[in-house]
Design brief:
Elements: E1 5-9, H1 27-37, E2 41-43, H2 54-64, E3 67-75, H3 81-100, E4 105-110, H4 128-149, E5 152-155, H5 166-175, E6 182-186, H6 187-192, H7 197-203, E7 208-213, E8 215-216, H8 218-227, H9 231-236, E9 240-241, H10 250-258, E10 264-268, H11 280-293
Parallel strand pairs: 1-2, 1-10, 2-3, 3-4, 4-5, 5-6, 6-7, 7-10
Antiparallel strand pairs: 8-9
């Protein structure tokens, strides 16, 4: 049932959250280790981390036998017209690079309301007019990318954002254009926020357009809830964990996704920021082998 799921990974699984950060794994090492771990597909990561010259990036990927599945952009569409205008330009820039390499998916992540140190940078709840700006802005952005680039925009619910819990995810899908707005189902963020991935897939099967695979350590999650920690603090504690050691259950999740009978990218995205540069490769290698054993690929073996 999983033959239509295409496995890949992302810079996030190597602890990369920013275009430039001296504590992060250098981009060329990331590409080398992705290939070494057995993956064939990757995401772009934060724009500017990997080379943004299409010819250079194509050469770097080709030398390692890698292909590009998509990219990601953060946006605070709830802030209104100026934020939408900025998001359109940011997504156009990303889409030009993606399409030059044959990729057709762009993941839109909502702006978070907490900083790395856990402090709040804005209210946790949106006013009704802000919710309308978010949903109508997403509709506009998705149609623009479809019409101009034939790129599918997929929305990524995110912990510590205004679309995090299952009720908010379902409300967002109900309030956005089903023809153009699809969901990037991040299995770890849904579980982190107390949601049920299987229920979302069953309730909105036609809206699942892309998948980020990750699991959450329930012991760490309990600590996060007890101490009221922010997402970045939770990640630093090891909230995201390699399968099969966390939740949600991976075999049942992959089976449910396989029943959709559509081609889907399933990108491993295990948040590790910050981490020692020698940490990601063994985790990525073990994850690729585990998921390969669940019937999802491609996975290269040496």
């Amino acid at each position: 049932m999983t033959e239509k799921l295409r496995l890949g990974t992302a810079p996030d699984s190597w602890g990369v959250w920013f275009p430039n950060d001296p504590s992060q794994v250098p981009w060329d090492r990331f590409l080398d280790e992705v290939a070494q771990a057995g993956y064939e597909w990757i995401e772009l990561g934060p724009y500017g981390y990997l080379p943004t010259n299409p010819a250079q990036l194509r050469d770097e990927l080709d030398r390692r036998g890698l292909k590009l599945s998509g990219g990601a952009v953060f946006a605070g569409l709830h802030h209104g017209p100026d934020a939408l205008k900025q998001a359109v330009e940011d997504c156009r820039t990303e889409a030009r690079l993606l399409t030059a390499l044959g990729a057709r998916h762009l993941v839109l992540l909502p702006e978070g309301y907490t900083e790395l140190d856990g402090s709040l940078n804005q209210p946790v709840e949106l006013a009704p007019e802000q919710w309308r700006e978010l949903t109508t802005g997403m509709d506009t952005l998705a149609r623009t990318l479809h019409d101009e680039f034939d790129v599918q925009l997929v929305f990524h619910p995110h912990a510590d954002s205004h679309v995090d819990t299952q009720p908010r995810v379902q409300r967002f899908l109900t309030d956005t254009d089903p023809e153009h707005v699809a969901l990037c189902l991040d299995t770890g963020h849904i579980a982190y926020c107390g949601g049920d991935n299987l229920e979302i897939i069953r309730a909105f099967p036609e809206r699942i357009g892309y998948v980020h695979l990750k699991q959450v350590d329930p012991v760490v999650l309990m600590q996060v809830k007890e101490q009221g920690l922010a997402f970045a603090q939770a990640v630093a504690l090891g909230a995201m964990i390699e399968p099969p050691n966390g939740v949600p259950d991976m075999p049942s999740l992959l089976d449910e996704l396989g029943r959709l009978d559509v081609d889907l990218f399933a990108i491993v995205e295990q948040d590790l920021y910050p981490c020692d540069p020698d940490t990601p490769l063994p985790i990525a290698t073990g994850t690729a082998r585990y998921l390969g054993g669940c019937g999802i690929g491609p996975v290269r073996t040496s």
